[in-house]
Write a structure and sequence with these properties.
Layout lengths: L1 H8 L5 H7 L5 H9 L5 H7 L5 H9 L5 H7 L5 H9 L5 H7 L5 H9 L5 H7 L5 H9 L5 H7 L5 H9 L5 H7 L5 H14 L7 H5 L9
Length: 217
């Protein structure tokens, strides 16, 4: 079996051989086939109905899986499969919007972290009850600044830190966060401002903030 797993993992294994391996009894062989970037869409469609959740998870994470199959797997009974769908940048927007309301926090976090998640879905996730989900939205570089401005006032320090660390966060939001009461947040803002002001006049906020005199080492 080990040889067949290695064969399925080999990028030089031809698609017709991968198709034969897709019918092998061992689920870990079929999983390796589903992970292959050389496997055909028809075989991925076949494996999407596999009894093993590990195989379906591999299909859900394959960027070559057909979009209609990814949409179907977004309703899989296994949260691990749904998580892989959420991570997959080939997943259609409507499937990501569906997964934004998944019962599992870590699935919603994956949606919030995905760079292809629709902006209105990110805006909805910014009000999620779980801190980890809002933190993922705050760290997503595609999140609109209007949403980041809201999250800059979040009650969770980790969410505000993610806003401060986000390279897409606008200067006016950073100006607000430099007065944050948490050192991890305002020190991150200061580092961001120092980086952006190299070769330019440093932002006025740096000179006027009471939080400037901190040990950044």
């Amino acid at each position: 079996m080990e040889n067949k797993i290695e064969e399925a993992k080999n990028p030089d294994t031809p698609p017709d051989r991968l198709e034969r391996l897709a019918y092998y009894n061992g689920w870990d062989v079929r999983e390796a086939v589903a992970n292959s970037l050389s496997v055909s869409p028809s075989v991925l469609t076949l494996l999407a109905h596999d009894e093993s959740w590990q195989v379906r998870e591999a299909v859900a994470g394959n960027p070559h899986t057909p979009s209609d199959i990814l949409s179907w797997l977004a309703s899989d009974k296994s949260a691990e499969v749904r998580k892989s769908v959420a991570y997959n940048e080939s997943t259609p927007p409507e499937a990501l919007a569906q997964l934004a309301y998944d019962e599992e926090e870590y699935v919603r976090s994956c949606v919030a972290d995905c760079p292809t998640t629709p902006l209105d879905t990110l805006a909805a996730l910014a009000s999620d009850k779980d801190d980890e989900v809002r933190e993922a939205v705050a760290g997503n570089e595609t999140t609109p600044n209007g949403v980041l401005a809201k999250l800059a006032n979040d009650g969770c320090m980790h969410v505000r830190w993610a806003v401060a660390a986000n390279k897409s966060t606008s200067p006016d939001i950073l100006d607000e966060l430099i007065n944050d009461t948490e050192e991890d947040v305002y020190s991150t803002v200061i580092m961001r401002m120092l980086e952006s002001s190299v070769g330019d006049t440093p932002p006025s906020s740096l000179g006027g903030s009471d939080n400037l005199l901190i040990d950044l080492g």
